[in-house]
Write a sequence for this structure.
């Protein structure tokens, strides 16, 4: 390289560095105008068209100590869900149903805005929405969890941890919960005449169930093999942001912070609306906006159902 | 009940003297003609004037001023209003005074008539002052002064003894209206008392006897929703009970 | 319960499917609060108190706008996730109407106390909050109207369900619309997206599953019901404000004058 070319390329490099710094500065100082520039060209800052969700990954069975688990990545948002089953006595009002206890947590690892101590109010709101969605949808029939009516039933502890919060938290949390429930294997149990239930543990090197020697002589016990849960249609949530007359699906945390108006639509089939949540915001939702959100949700429903099928197939092959 | 739709045809708003609610659009500026002054409770939204506080819409022809008269307890400081404040703290250069606004006001130590570094009045926390709002902007702490524009005290300054009570800003405004408010007139005929009314909803009353002070304050508080005739009757009942 | 063969027949409390419960709105009840209101829909009663704008400290201080804070106190028991979600929803809804940029570096708190919950409690709370904000004189850019609509197990859409109906129904929705303002200028407020502005939804919270068509019907019925509630809110405003015009129209409130408080209640029995 001759002496004249070297300074020319150095200044080109310098220009590139300076202009990328300016772009970053503009993004920090004027976040709304930064996003508006992209919206006018019908694109998002990360290059997606307005109605498309981020690439989604679902992996089942990541945590071997649980009875069912799933790790979900929705763009950068990462959720880990696990289900542990516990024997319990069903309540007297619903003697032939088990229970699901949902706990959604946002540990400080997920976002610089979360501090240790009292849970963020967003976490509480999502907790509540998750329980409502799972209760209103027909994903899990609680009678599946019953062992002996009135005497024993399974209690499922569904814990969801947010490992990285980058927008669309409810979408990812619901997907993780659904996937974890799909992965659940109810352990094999033996029930004796008095209704006492014992979980049969499998020793790793044997295929035969290990039975306690002293209990072999007891009166006959009924054995229920381990099984998967029978699940209904999976509910799928889509978070949409409204800004002027644009509709953005699956926002990142940056977009959520700047464009205040959120609409979350949860469907489990193209015509069955499990939940529609719009908490205020600066934009009114007209009937056509609502229909657009539902249309986006219908497309996403098909996509997510396909992703869940592939994930279950993959896990079955392993 | 039907909401009567009255559309602006001339340059004056058709909703004057009616009760308006936040969000009501009262004036189209493009048809208004001359300069329109907006007082409390109104703001400009593009070409129209929108109400931000509930109350009765008022209009003064003289300087084409519109404002909304409402009943509020919370005071929002505006310039050139006389307020009664209570000193909360003394800083190096100023006092921090509580006037019932979103933040405490600043009263410079030298803002008294004839005050110099040597002989400025020394106000303790808890002392009451009657002052004038000199600066009031939403981003800045309000500033007070105990002098008028020509640096004379003209009634401003510390208030000694007496009793301070709170009322709504609407009542304070009506107490200061001209001609003299009926309740004050009726009380003044038989009792002798001193009174200072702050537009921030505070009233200071002082008299020789504590019973006079109590009677005057009770009479003022109960006069809020009475017609002038009823106010006279109420005052005469109060005075009878005093004897 | 609704008679399914003849859906237009009476519900357990004698109303038709589109009939709202009698509503009462009273303002200015609490002496210490800067603004307060009590909203009653038959047996559902909730009180809202507004404090502010007042100075706030630390993290909550925002140099550009006032910070809104909502606290929900239940009738009994400890506040759980349901109450937190209600707080978040109400705060975001009120951020639509409060002109918070007029009071930077301050805080506005709204505290709710549930006196009795007989269904539609969130809608009641929204209405009470709006009335309390007006009573406190906080600058607003409009008013809101909230209504609750339910869908029974057989798909009948019903307005303003009671607690029993909510439990037995398949789903219910709380809808919040902007209040239609009085307008002195022709053509305003401008329609949004082809519909009048008061048909747009500020907030929507659903519980339970319903079909998309049922949801659209709920929207329609909600809009129709909100027109009636709008006229109630305007009436209550007019009567409350008339009292303060000294010496012109109104006489003393119920005999001996009550110091300082503007207490006026309107009960409007709304027909089908």
């Amino acid at each position: 390289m001759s002496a004249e070319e070297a300074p020319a390329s150095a200044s080109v490099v310098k220009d590139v560095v300076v202009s990328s710094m300016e772009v970053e500065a503009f993004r920090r100082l004027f976040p709304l105008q930064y996003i508006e520039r992209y919206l006018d060209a019908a694109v998002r800052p990360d290059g997606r068209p307005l109605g498309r969700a981020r690439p989604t990954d679902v992996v089942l069975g990541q945590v071997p100590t649980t009875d069912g688990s799933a790790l979900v990545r929705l763009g950068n948002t990462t959720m880990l869900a696990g289900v542990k089953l516990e024997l319990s006595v069903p309540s007297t009002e619903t003697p032939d149903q088990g229970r699901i206890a949902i706990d959604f947590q946002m540990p400080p690892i997920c976002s610089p805005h979360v501090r240790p101590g009292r849970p963020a109010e967003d976490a509480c709101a999502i907790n509540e929405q998750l329980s409502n969605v799972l209760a209103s949808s027909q994903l899990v029939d609680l009678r599946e969890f019953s062992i002996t009516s009135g005497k024993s039933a399974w209690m499922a502890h569904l814990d969801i941890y947010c490992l990285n919060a980058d927008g669309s938290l409810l979408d990812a949390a619901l997907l993780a919960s659904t996937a974890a429930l799909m992965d659940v294997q109810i352990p094999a149990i033996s029930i004796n005449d008095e209704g006492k239930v014992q979980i049969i543990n499998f020793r790793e090197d044997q295929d035969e169930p290990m039975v306690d020697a002293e209990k072999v002589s007891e009166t006959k016990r009924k054995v229920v093999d381990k099984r998967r849960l029978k699940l209904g249609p999976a509910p799928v949530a889509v978070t949409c942001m409204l800004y002027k007359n644009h509709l953005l699906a699956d926002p990142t945390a940056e977009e959520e912070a700047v464009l205040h108006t959120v609409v979350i639509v949860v469907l489990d089939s193209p015509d069955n609306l499990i939940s529609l949540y719009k908490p205020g915001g600066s934009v009114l939702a007209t009937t056509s906006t609502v229909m657009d959100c539902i249309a986006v949700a219908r497309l996403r429903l098909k996509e997510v159902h396909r992703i869940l099928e592939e994930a279950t197939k993959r896990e079955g092959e392993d | 009940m039907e909401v009567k739709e009255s559309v602006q045809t001339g340059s004056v708003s058709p909703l004057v003297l009616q009760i308006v609610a936040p969000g009501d659009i009262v004036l189209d500026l493009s048809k208004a003609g001359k300069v329109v002054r907006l007082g409390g409770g109104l703001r400009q939204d593009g070409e129209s004037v929108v109400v931000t506080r509930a109350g009765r819409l008022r209009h003064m022809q003289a300087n084409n001023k519109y404002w909304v008269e409402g009943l509020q307890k919370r005071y929002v400081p505006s310039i050139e209003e006389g307020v009664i404040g209570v000193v909360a703290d003394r800083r190096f250069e100023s006092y921090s005074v509580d006037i019932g606004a979103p933040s405490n006001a600043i009263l410079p130590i030298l803002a008294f008539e004839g005050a110099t570094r040597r002989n400025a009045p020394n106000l303790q926390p808890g002392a009451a002052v009657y002052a004038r709002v000199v600066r009031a902007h939403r981003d800045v702490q309000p500033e007070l002064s105990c002098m008028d524009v020509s640096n004379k005290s003209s009634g401003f300054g510390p208030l000694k003894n007496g009793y301070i009570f709170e009322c709504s800003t609407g009542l304070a405004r009506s107490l200061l209206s001209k001609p003299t408010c009926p309740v004050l007139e009726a009380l003044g005929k038989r009792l002798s008392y001193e009174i200072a009314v702050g537009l921030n909803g505070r009233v200071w009353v002082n008299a020789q006897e504590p019973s006079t002070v109590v009677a005057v304050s009770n009479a003022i508080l109960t006069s809020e929703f009475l017609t002038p005739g009823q106010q006279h009757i109420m005052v005469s009942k109060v005075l009878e009970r005093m004897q | 319960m609704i008679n399914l063969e003849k859906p237009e027949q009476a519900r357990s409390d004698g109303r038709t499917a589109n009939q709202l419960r009698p509503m009462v709105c009273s303002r200015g009840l609490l002496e210490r609060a800067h603004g307060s209101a009590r909203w009653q829909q038959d047996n559902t009663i909730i009180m809202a108190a507004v404090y502010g704008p007042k100075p706030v400290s630390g993290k909550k201080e925002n140099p550009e706008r006032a910070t809104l804070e909502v606290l929900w106190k239940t009738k009994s028991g400890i506040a759980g996730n349901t109450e937190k979600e209600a707080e978040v929803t109400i705060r975001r809804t009120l951020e639509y109407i409060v002109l918070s940029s007029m009071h930077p570096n301050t805080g506005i708190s709204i505290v709710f106390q549930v006196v009795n919950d007989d269904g539609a409690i969130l809608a009641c709370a929204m209405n009470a909050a709006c009335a309390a904000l007006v009573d406190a004189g906080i600058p607003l850019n409009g008013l809101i109207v909230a209504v609750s609509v339910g869908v029974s197990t057989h798909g009948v859409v019903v307005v303003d369900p009671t607690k029993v109906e909510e439990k037995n129904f398949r789903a219910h929705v709380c809808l919040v619309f902007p209040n239609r303002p009085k307008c002195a200028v022709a053509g305003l407020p401008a329609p949004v997206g082809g519909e009048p502005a008061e048909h747009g939804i500020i907030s929507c919270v659903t519980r339970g599953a319903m079909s998309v068509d049922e949801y659209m019907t709920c929207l329609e019925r909600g809009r129709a019901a909100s027109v009636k509630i709008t006229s109630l809110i305007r009436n209550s405003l007019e009567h409350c404000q008339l009292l303060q015009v000294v010496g012109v129209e109104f006489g003393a409130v119920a005999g001996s004058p009550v110091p300082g408080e503007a207490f006026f209640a309107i009960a409007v029995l709304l027909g089908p």
